[in-house]
Design goal:
This protein has 478 residues and is an all-alpha fold. The protein has 18 helices and 2 strands. It is globular. It has one domain: Amino acid/polyamine transporter I.
């Protein structure tokens, strides 16, 4: 083992039971989710048109490079805290704070994005059954046009999105556990919907909707043309968030050196193929200009009479599936805050456990309030780009950290080693960095502001209260 924390070692010995097929299934279940139901329509309508199919392929390749580096980190340092803890162990407390703070942005924005997407499908379902939500409380009061300008919509706030977050937070505080069978059912449901839409929709694709496949550039970089395809990669990268769960399972794999790359490669290749087929079908059923809505899948199948019967099925599946995604994301957010609070980076209230429910209840409530604020006020396009840039930045640091660790600790115990690391890691940095570069300047400004707030908090509080890690890295004997 590479870490001297006994509970981790014991857990590792008890759970080495996953084979390659388990890991591929785990990756597919984590990846298939909010991105395909929420972000695809916006990326096609605003940036790439039908060329969003190519954007999915490029983003998937970038994820592959980052995922292989993530796998080495996870197998070397199998403790709680995700990339935040890995960075703490290898690059010091400030970089750990930096990546942890951006993971907070990722989880907050991702939870809010999925909640807004859920609201879109919920509103469409309520309209279908004749009980529409009043317009004033059905969407965000802010909007963003194709040029990146923010305006007012005339609504008050997105009530369904806020209500979902409140319900999910209550469940998290009460400590209700999701059973394995429930999780598997949700995974199966989401996967079945994707396959159903592809199978039913593919024969009815309208060729004219794919002409031209890459719409001509409007004269502005990133608005259609090849620059639009590239810009869309940073936006639809959101659809791949979750693949790192395969690398986190490195310490549970029967043969991590062989099975982890199979799990990452297998799940990413299969999901990339499904995403490309799904986006091809959506932009073929409906003109891409009509898909900039929170419910693009049901919008697309409604565009043709012979597939319209799918709309309520898609809506029900998305409502159930996306609600479970919000729960998992908010759960992950509270765990990141818990790890940072445990290390002294943020106040101890975020690591306080409820005496009866045994959950980090204060952390869940505080983060959910911020999440509800974002979901209630901001449109899905702004939120999706915030998620992508925070995650891409984290992956850049993970790829960099793996190379640093190879130099500073060459004899470190590594159950899984990134193959061709000096090619894979720089490629991951280059591709993830490029996808960040292709995001609009407004997204960068928001990232800089968020980071500046984090730096102030670190020097005002975290630096003075940070604790030494409770574990240390170990190297192989001479």
């Amino acid at each position: 083992m590479a870490v001297t924390e006994d509970p981790v070692a014991e857990q590792h010995e008890l759970q080495r039971a996953l084979g390659p097929h388990h890991l591929v299934a785990l990756g597919i279940g984590a990846i298939i989710g909010a991105g395909i139901f929420v972000i695809t329509g916006h990326a096609a309508a605003a940036y790439a048109g039908p060329g969003v199919v190519i954007s999915f392929a490029i983003a998937g390749l970038g994820c592959l490079f980052a995922g292989l580096c993530y796998a080495e980190y996870a197998s070397t340092i199998p403790v709680a805290g995700s990339a935040y803890t890995y960075t703490f162990a290898t690059m010091g407390r400030f970089m750990a704070w930096f990546i942890g703070w951006n993971l907070v942005l990722e989880y907050l924005a991702a939870s809010a994005t999925v909640a807004v997407g859920w609201s879109g499908y919920f509103n469409d379902f309520m309209r279908y059954i004749g009980m529409p939500i009043t317009t004033a409380f059905a969407s965000a009061p802010l909007s963003m046009d194709a040029a990146g300008h923010i305006g007012l919509t005339g609504t008050f706030f997105n009530l369904p999105a806020v209500a979902l977050i409140a319900v999910v937070t209550t469940v998290l505080v009460l400590g209700v556990r999701l059973s394995a069978s429930f999780n598997n059912a949700m995974v199966a449901l989401k996967l079945c919907i994707v396959l159903l839409v592809i199978a039913v929709g593919l024969p009815h694709v309208v060729g004219a909707n794919h002409q031209p496949f890459i719409p001509p550039n409007t004269g502005t970089w990133g608005h259609f043309g090849w620059s639009g395809v590239m810009r869309a990669t940073g936006v639809i990268f959101f659809a791949y968030i979750g693949f790192d769960v395969v690398s986190v399972a490195a310490q549970e794999a029967k043969n991590p050196q062989r099975d982890i790359p199979i799990g990452i490669l297998g799940s990413l290749i299969l999901c990339t193929a499904l995403y490309m087929l799904m986006s091809y079908v959506l932009t073929g059923l409906a003109n891409y200009t009509t898909l900039n809505v929170p419910h693009p899948v049901s919008k697309a199948v409604e565009a043709i009479a012979v597939t319209a019967w799918l709309a309520p099925i898609v809506n029900v599946g998305a409502i159930v599936g996306l609600a479970s995604v919000v729960l998992v994301l908010l759960l992950g957010q509270s765990r990141i805050f818990y790890a940072m609070s445990r290390d002294g980076m943020i106040p101890p209230l975020f690591s306080e456990i409820h005496p009866a429910f045994k959950t980090p209840w204060k952390s869940s409530i505080v983060t959910s309030i911020f999440c509800a604020f974002l979901a209630g006020l901001l449109p899905i396009d702004i939120l999706g780009e915030l998620v992508s840039i925070g995650t891409l930045l984290a992956f850049v640091i993970v790829c960099l950290g793996v190379m640093i660790l190879r130099i500073t600790k060459p004899r470190l115990v590594r159950p899984f080693k990134t193959p061709l690391v000096w090619l894979v890691a720089p490629s991951g940095i280059l591709m993830c960095g490029a996808m960040m570069y292709w995001l609009p300047i407004d997204t960068w400004i928001r990232l800089v502001v968020w980071t500046a707030i984090g730096v102030v908090i670190y020097f005002a509080y975290g630096r003075r209260h940070v604790k030494a890690p409770r574990w240390s890295l170990q190297e192989e004997p001479e």
